[in-house]
Design a protein that fits this description.
With 414 residues, this protein is of the alpha/beta class. It has helices spanning 23-46, 72-82, 140-148, 155-158, 396-411, and strands at 4-5, 12-13, 48-51, 91-95, 98-101, 104-106, 111-115, 119-122, 133-136, 171-175, 178-179, 188-193, 205-209, 212-213, 216-228, 232-233, 237-248, 250-252, 256-260, 275-277, 280-282, 286-290, 293-299, 302-304, 308-310, 315-318, 321-323, 327-331, 334-338, 340-342, 345-351, 357-360, 363-364, 367-369, 375-378. The strands form three sheets. The chain has a 22-stranded parallel sheet that branches. Mean pLDDT is 83; it is low at 39-45 and 381-385.
Length: 414
């Protein structure tokens, strides 16, 4: 009689009087399949850890749903020490609803956090305190020195304390978690701190989804920082030598400052540094210093309630958006704005060099200060139907406006 097989693991079920004196071959093959499947299931379960700050009962935490860790850092420490996390083989830590009072540090790739419900991680404020979240490749001892020298509040002066560790780089995903205390402002609640020289640490990648940072967000020396799917920074965003800050459907309540120093260690993607993505809402001002850039690849639907300030060799390229304040340009900074509505003025009174600043299809309310004549304005407004120079319209509306104005101009009585 022919053998049959189970539907899930394809275990062989010998027929009547089959495998006489050879049952051990079939049985051992089936055991091997069962063992492999159990091991795979155990590994999958072990790579999902739970944290619940509301548990007050006594037990020995092991990261399971029944016996979760009570601190997020306990789960991170266990994952980094025992599960060998990596970008391709991550560990997912589920953070249960509640307020977690702790400062957490992630130092290895593949340690990902997922909030379940309303969960927030907060710390106290003051001198020599720590942020709610630190992502870094620096050694623990050097991080301790960094924060002991008030690195949370004065990162630039304390940065020399950081020393790179051996496991590099760091790539993590964090979803649905709040960081900081709504009652505490003007502190860094999230800090991304790259340490070392060359490109050793600069391939790091931190992605945030639907997260809230209640005060400031600070990032220095990393490849990418990504805010996606309705992230909100309620304070200021400060980045230094970040290859790409990718923002998608995100809001910055304070100012966004992007600076870059080509004399400092370079990210591995040195051609791509800047603010990109969209839509992005900045309720403060957008400040771009040094060799900082915005929109190098693509920046669309940028809404800025304050000014856009460009200094030195900064560059800003925006395909569509709205600026409630002014555009201020200093030194050799440049910009290319397409279909931007500017409530204020464009001020090029302190510029140097000859590289043009370009407005394509943009509108301005107040005026232009351009003593060096560096501004090139391709006006695609309906009032100037005859001007077809420069780049093409970037939206269907602007294209229709131009065509309608052209037809009206051609058909109007002499």
């Amino acid at each position: 009689m022919a053998s049959t097989f189970t539907s899930n693991l394809n275990l062989e079920k010998p027929g009547f009087r089959d495998y006489v004196d050879a049952w051990h071959n079939v049985l051992n093959a089936n055991f091997d399949k069962i063992d492999e499947s159990v091991a795979r299931l155990t590994d999958t379960i072990s790579r999902h850890l739970f944290v619940d700050p509301t548990r007050t009962d006594l037990y020995t935490p092991n990261g399971t749903r029944a016996k979760p860790y009570k601190l997020v850092q306990e789960a991170i420490n266990y994952a980094e020490a025992n599960l060998n996390p990596s970008h391709n083989n991550p560990v997912l830590i589920y953070v249960m609803p509640g307020i977690h009072t702790e400062s957490i540090i992630i130092k290895k790739s593949g340690v990902n956090l997922q909030g379940l419900g309303m969960c927030r991680i907060k710390t106290s404020s003051g001198t020599n305190t720590r942020p709610a979240l630190t992502i870094s490749n620096a050694t623990i001892s050097s991080l301790n020195s960094f924060f002991a020298n008030d690195g949370r509040n004065n990162a630039s002066s304390a940065y020399s304390n950081l020393i790179a560790d051996t496991f590099l780089p760091v790539a993590v995903n964090i979803k649905d978690i709040e960081f900081g205390d709504p009652a505490i402002t003007n502190v860094n609640d999230v800090m991304i701190l790259g340490a070392g020289n060359g490109t050793a640490f600069l391939s790091s990648d931190a992605s945030f989804y639907r997260c809230i940072c209640h005060s400031n967000f600070f990032a220095r020396n990393a490849n990418y920082v990504k805010l996606r799917n309705d992230c909100c920074i309620k304070g200021n965003l400060t980045t230094f030598n970040i290859a790409g800050s990718w923002f998608e459907h995100s809001v910055i309540i304070g100012n966004a400052e992007i600076s870059y120093n080509v004399a400092s260690p370079q990210p591995s993607d040195i051609s791509n540094f800047g603010l990109n993505g969209g839509p992005v809402k900045i309720r403060g001002s957008l400040l771009i210093f040094g060799a900082g850039r915005a929109g190098f690849d693509e920046l669309t639907n940028l809404l800025v309630s304050g000014n856009i300030d460009l200094d030195n060799s900064a560059n800003c390229k925006v395909n569509s958006g709205y600026v409630n304040g002014d555009i201020n340009v200093e030194g050799t900074a440049t910009f290319t704005f397409r279909n931007i509505f500017i409530e204020g003025s464009v001020n090029l009174s302190d510029v140097e060099g000859t590289t043009p600043c370009v407005l394509d299809g943009s509108q301005m309310i107040t005026g232009i200060v351009d003593p060096s004549s560096r501004l090139i304005w391709h006006d695609f407004n309906a009032a100037n139907a005859g001007d077809w120079s420069g780049a093409p319209p970037q939206t269907i509306k602007s294209a229709i406006d131009r065509l309608a104005a052209k037809v009206a101009s051609d058909l109007s009585p002499a």
